[in-house]
Specification:
heterodimer; A: mainly alpha; two-stranded antiparallel ribbon; 2 strands; elongated; B: mainly alpha; 1% strand; globular; FANCF (chain A); FA complementation group F (chain A)
């Protein structure tokens, strides 16, 4: 353990040197570069080894605090390294070097050189073309993104959903405070109005990741509980996601089916009949779904979950009766929905 | 052999003419237009011009090396910085190995190791800034926040997203309505998946991660109709400098769709045998490795092209024993492949020089095979030539 702590301290120091605009980096050649990235990858290994071991993690965190304090005194503008930064050390090193004007151009050329994945004949192949390959991947994603219609939510949301679930699994299985998991969901999903649609796609993808282990089932459950509390998100999902996706979600998760049904009822109850338009119109905080769209949502939900249909229809009938049990159109939204559904 | 170098010189690049103001203006206008239109809208135009862009960047690189000083280059080509800068942010340009490599070389060419004036210092700063932003900048804030909170580095994230996109395209190609086992040539795929996918992958021809989709496109039964694959895709296949990471079937498909690539493969074989001077026992291995005999056995049209090339070379290199042995070895390998393909029909094929020397012979029971392989020769001539020489 002592050796590990010493190595972590050295790696963090190296990162600080890489970021610092002194003469040290101007001496970095391909050998130094390769060794530096080797140390960065060591940090990733330390994270993998200790992130589920809370005792070991605490010891590493203590070492990091100690090293950070020392380096804060030695370097101005020092950026502290936390335990959560360890798996991204390679990227932090790259950022530090690329922003450092002292890095020799010959060393930079190695990072932007051609990455030949098949060659076994050159040295430092881990660092050669590192940036080039990254630029290629980012560009390829941009070029292919307009064709995202191939998947229901898009490749980005799918990968982000997987990342979300993996982190949620880790947080929940560590037996840590559930508030930490909630805080995590808040930080990554509730970003802004503009990002709301994308968050819905990520949540959808996360909920549709194959649940083949106990941990994933409880993570799905946690996410669904969180979703039920976030009415805004559920509303957005219900009103913007394609019906095929909503059907998949309802089929996969009973909790989602129930939450979605409750939301639909709430939105329907807020509709008001307009005599001028001869139609039910959304009002208040309800999403702007037309009456026809509302009916389609109910219909799709019952298609996806036949077990829900009987009880749901009884419920809607009871609501119609409460409204006065009228058959004429425009007097009870429940009656009108039921008669549309029977067609 | 000087005679041999004549057809080979077709492959040599002619020296690049110097840049003129008109050309630079053309590419500046293009770079600005592509920037303004934004990726997807300009896609078709960008794809049409990728090859021209490669030539332009090669000329720029040559010019930068000729001039030798950044300050002088900036004076002579004042819009160069703008062009290169805009192209750096165009993903259709930076996705392919060739254009990205040339763009980077242009930037290195403009970097001064020991800057002596303000122009050079500024250029150096700009180049470092562009490179740092290209590698490090994330344009999706939501993704960036998630990466930080889930401890996933950008390199891993972008590669995962790309692999997923590639997989989805492959599955989509696999789902197209042409049944794989169909041998009915009149069965046409009614969906335009092949067309749109090949169009989408034009800029990714020389992106190694994309090779599974490129292979799938080339191997799909629907692509036996020329117009299934996009024109721009075929053009890009023809002209890419980098060697494609293709498997056997895809390689044969490339040759089937691209005559220049087939010709190139034949000439490459001859060049490599002549330059390395293969021992006879290695020659067969070398020929088989090219996949040319197999391809010719599978597609008569390819055999005809290869046959023509060999005939032309034999005429020019009369008496050259190396060339003769390559052609003999090729014919032997071709016969073996044909035998494996059609074991019931024993095939005798004649290939002969202008001097009517029989190099190798075979005998065919199916006259249709013969006619297909030798459409110009009347049966009355073929029949005596089919007879094995005695002694």
């Amino acid at each position: 353990m002592e050796a590990v702590l010493k190595n972590v301290a050295s790696a963090v120091e190296l990162l600080a040197v890489a970021a610092h605009t002194s003469d040290a980096v101007s001496q970095w050649d391909e050998k130094t570069l390769s060794r530096a990235f080797h140390w960065a990858r060591y940090c990733e290994y330390v994270y993998t080894r200790f992130h589920t071991n809370s005792a070991g993690r605490r010891v590493v965190e203590k070492q990091l605090q100690h090293t950070n304090a020392r380096l804060r005194d030695a370097f101005t503008d020092y950026r502290e390294v936390s335990f959560m930064d360890l798996p991204r050390c390679e990227h932090l090193l790259l950022l530090a070097l690329l922003s450092n004007p002292q890095l020799p151009i010959s060393t930079m050329k190695i990072l932007f050189g051609k990455k030949d994945v098949t060659s076994r004949h050159y040295d430092y192949k881990e660092v050669t073309g590192l940036c080039s390959h990254l630029i290629q991947c980012k560009s390829a994603c941009k070029v292919l993104r307009p064709f995202s219609g191939l998947s229901a939510v898009g490749a980005d949301a799918e990968v982000q959903g997987e990342m979300l679930m993996k982190r949620l699994d880790a947080l929940l299985s560590q037996g840590s405070d559930p508030q930490q998991a909630e805080h995590f969901l808040h930080s990554v999903l509730l970003l802004s109005e503009e990002a709301a649609h994308h968050s819905c796609l990520v949540i959808t993808a996360a909920l549709l990741t194959a649940s083949d282990s106990g941990t994933q089932t409880s993570s799905h459950s946690f996410l669904l509980n969180w979703l039920q509390k976030e009415h805004g998100v559920l509303q957005h999902m219900g009103s913007t996601l394609p019906s095929a996706v909503l059907k998949d979600l309802a089929r996969a998760h009973g909790k989602f089916r129930d939450a979605y049904f409750s939301a639909l009822k709430k939105w329907a109850s807020e509709m008001k009949y307009s005599l001028n338009d001869g139609e039910w119109l959304p009002e208040g905080t309800a999403p702007s779904l037309s009456f026809q769209e509302m009916v389609e949502h109910f219909s799709d939900l019952f298609d996806a979950c036949p077990s829900l249909r009987r009880n749901a229809e009884d419920e809607l009938l009871a609501l119609k009766i409460l409204d006065g049990d009228f058959d004429a159109r425009g007097l009870s939204v429940w009656g009108d929905i039921l008669s549309e559904l029977k067609k | 052999m000087t005679e041999l170098q004549q057809p080979l010189s077709q492959l040599q690049e002619t020296s690049e003419p110097l840049l003129n103001a008109q050309k630079v203006q053309f590419w500046l206008d293009k770079a600005v237009a592509w920037d303004r239109a934004g990726g997807a809208h300009a896609q078709k135009d960008i794809c049409r011009h990728l090859r021209g862009l490669t030539d332009f960047l090669k000329q720029v690189l040559a010019q930068i090396s000729n001039i030798g000083s950044t300050a002088e280059t900036v004076k002579e080509l004042p819009f160069l910085g703008q062009i290169l800068g805009r192209l750096c942010w165009n993903p259709y340009v930076t996705v392919g190995d060739t254009n990205r490599g040339l763009l980077l070389q242009c930037l290195w060419g403009l970097y001064s190791e020991n800057p002596t004036n303000a122009v050079e210092r500024k250029a150096n700063q700009w180049i470092r800034k562009v490179l740092c932003r290209l590698a490090a900048e994330e344009d999706n804030p939501a993704a960036e926040i998630l990466m930080k909170n889930t401890c996933v580095p950008p390199k891993e994230y972008h590669l995962r997203v790309l692999k997923k996109m590639i997989k989805q395209h492959q599955e989509n190609i696999g789902k197209t309505c042409c049944p794989k086992k169909s041998t009915d040539p009149s069965c046409r795929c009614s969906c335009d998946v092949i067309q749109t996918t090949s169009e989408a992958f034009v800029p990714l021809i020389d992106c190694p991660e994309a090779s599974p989709v490129i292979c799938s496109l080339l191997q799909h039964p629907g692509t036996s109709f020329i117009d299934a694959l996009s024109e721009d895709f075929l053009d890009a296949l023809n002209s890419t400098d980098s060697s494609l990471a293709l498997d056997e079937t895809a390689l044969v498909s490339v040759w089937y769709h691209s005559l220049p690539r087939l010709e190139e493969a034949v000439l490459d074989l001859l060049k490599s045998v002549i330059s390395t001077g293969s021992a006879p026992q290695n020659l067969e291995q070398q020929v088989l490795k090219t996949q040319l005999p197999k391809a010719c056995a599978q597609h008569c049209s390819m055999f005809l092209v290869v046959n023509d090339i060999f005939r032309s070379i034999l005429r020019q290199a009369e008496g050259n024993l190396v060339v003769q042995s390559v052609i003999q070895t090729f014919t032997r390998c071709f016969l073996k492949e044909l035998e494996e393909l059609e074991p019931r029909a024993k095939t005798y094929i004649c290939t002969f020089t202008m001097n009517n020397n029989l190099l190798s012979t075979g005998k065919s029971q199916t006259s249709t095979s013969l006619k297909a392989f030798f459409p110009q020769s009347p049966p009355s001539l073929l029949v005596p030539l089919l007879t094995l020489p005695s002694g």
